[in-house]
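Moderator note: this is an archived Q&A kept for reference. The question asked for a predicted structure of one protein chain; the sequence and the answer are reproduced below.
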Amino acid sequence: MKRVKSIDLLSSPIVSSLLTFALPILISNALQQFYNAADTTIVGNFLGFRSLAAIGATSAIYELIVGFAIGIANGMGIVVARHFGAGDIEKIKKAVAGSIVIGSVLSLAVMLVGGVWLYGLLRLVHIPENIIDEAYSYIYIIMIFFFLTFFYNWSASMLRAIGNSLTPLLILLVTSVINIGLDILFITRFNSGIKGAAIATVVSQAISALLCIVYMYIKADILIPKLKHFKYNYYVYADLSTQGFAMGFMSSIVSIGTVILQTAVNGMGVTIIAAQTTGRRIMFFLMMPMSSLATALTTFVSQNFGAGNKSRIKSAVKYANIINTIWSIISVVFVYTLSIPLIRFISGSYDKELIANAKLYIAMAAPFFWALGILFNLRNALQGMDRKIEPLISSCIELICKIAFVLFVIPRVGYTGVVLTEPIIWVVMVLQLAYSFYIRK
């Protein structure tokens, strides 16, 4: 077996191993968000206000697609990490083989469903008629090439499961530069509009997936199954499916709630849509250190759960909560000092209404990041411990609360209701997850 460069999550100091493992994940997540943020920034500056709103109006659907892919891939990665922690190479290879089969079938299903019902979904979320065709031209390309999104995230998840978070980062670094170059080429030279931004994104994801898989063949053959490992085994496929779909559905339920919330925003006009789009881009970047640490925590917990190291799991969750709380304080300072120049840069606009509403969105969210960070950590730790139901319940709570806000709060208080929705829900979910992790055994 070829030697794989990985971080020892089973015996090395907890804080240093967590942070060392999380840092490449953080940069990778930033670059992945940079794909979409680059589309937004370049479109806003070169194509204008209306095209920016067209991308923004589909942002919740984009998050649903990408979140589902990442959730499924990370869920199956948890199974591989557990077997890696237990030192069972045969089970690792069987799990990898099963994840390839499940991912291929899933990608085909999503592409077929999206191709048939996507335009109807855009109408369902009340995208304004004057931008719906442009919005469709963007998100349709993302949808029909879903398999590229999935298999990049799958290959990155497999490498992270064995402690290698650096390789996916280096590959994504290269392809992010390619993505920006293609964005500018298609939009400014080929005059392809926002379709060009979508094409740039899927081409870059294709290159990322290909390079990750080639690396696995050359340097990480512990993840390369043989033909015999593809033989159907009920227990392997059940384990992969329940873990993968639990995380995928958890992410999807959250994103469906976001789609419903976006429906309310889409009814408030193009300026509010653009403001919301800009605010969410900034919020995502501020959230990434917390979500990246939580992703690292998932692998840490999975490997140690497989090895039976329960005390390390509890300590890791405690340290992760402390780190994320510190970051939430830094985020508040950033929002109240530097948000306006960043809003102007991302939106390409000096419109006072747009800037004010974008700032309101992130200024209301940032003080509650402490709750969001704890939420991420507890939910991912429970997943890593093979406790699938409690995180799924938390996602259902989020969906129900968002529906309630859209039906009863936002119609009465307008955009203020939109910006209050998520912070209040984060606090509610933290209470449920803290009970599940610390009290309910």
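Archived answer notes: Residues 112 and 291 are 30 Å apart (CA to CA).
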